[in-house]
Design brief:
Blueprint (H helix, E strand, L loop, with lengths): L1 H48 L7 H13 L4 H14 L7 H22 L6 H5 L5 H22 L23
Helix pairs in contact: 1-2, 1-4, 3-4
Length: 177
């Protein structure tokens, strides 16, 4: 009888010592998972929010973080590398190449959505972009304004302020996804 009481006391003492330690360890694991999910979710949301604007700073930052925050998610990393390969391939700068790039981009978003638990989010829903007509008109006006400013600066010697070296022609940008 005495040995069973001693065993019970030993187990009780062990539980009292190990319980708080295990609780802290479990808490750290859960906190780490929560931080990772929040980082991944922020990247995904930035890509979804910026899918209409290929050059937005938030989208570019999010693209740069994919390999870091999804490092242990093989399907996402593979989809990111396939998309990256497509956008850096200059032979895909035509209409067919743009379709390939868009497909790979939405494959990437789909892989990310699955990892984050958005299992019912479809590709069609991700391709649907909120873009009022006025937004497109404003963007066109901005583009025309930039072209006119460039023309004006390039030909500024005609305005009484001679330029020794005209600015170089701007690089040709590929159309957005």
């Amino acid at each position: 009888m005495q040995t069973s009481q001693e065993a019970f006391d030993a187990v009780t003492v062990l539980a009292l010592l190990a319980g708080p330690i295990l609780a802290v360890l479990v808490g750290r694991v859960l906190q780490k998972r929560s931080v990772a999910y929040n980082e991944r979710s922020a990247v995904f949301k930035a890509l979804i929010a910026g899918r209409y604007d290929a050059l937005s700073q938030d989208r570019l930052r999010a693209l740069a973080l994919i390999e870091v925050v999804f490092y242990d998610e093989g399907p996402v990393v593979s989809a990111w590398r396939a998309w990256h390969e497509a956008v850096t391939n200059s032979s895909l700068n035509d209409a067919h190449g743009m379709e390939i790039r868009a497909t790979k981009y939405y494959d990437l978003l789909t892989a990310m959505a699955r990892v984050l638990g958005y299992t019912r989010l479809t590709r069609n829903e991700m391709e649907r972009v909120y873009s009022p007509a006025l937004l497109g008109q404003v963007a066109s006006l901005r583009g025309l304004t930039e072209i006119e400013w460039y023309r004006l600066l390039k030909n500024s010697e005609h305005l009484g302020s001679p330029r020794k070296h005209p600015p170089p022609d701007p690089p040709e940008l590929p159309p957005p996804l």
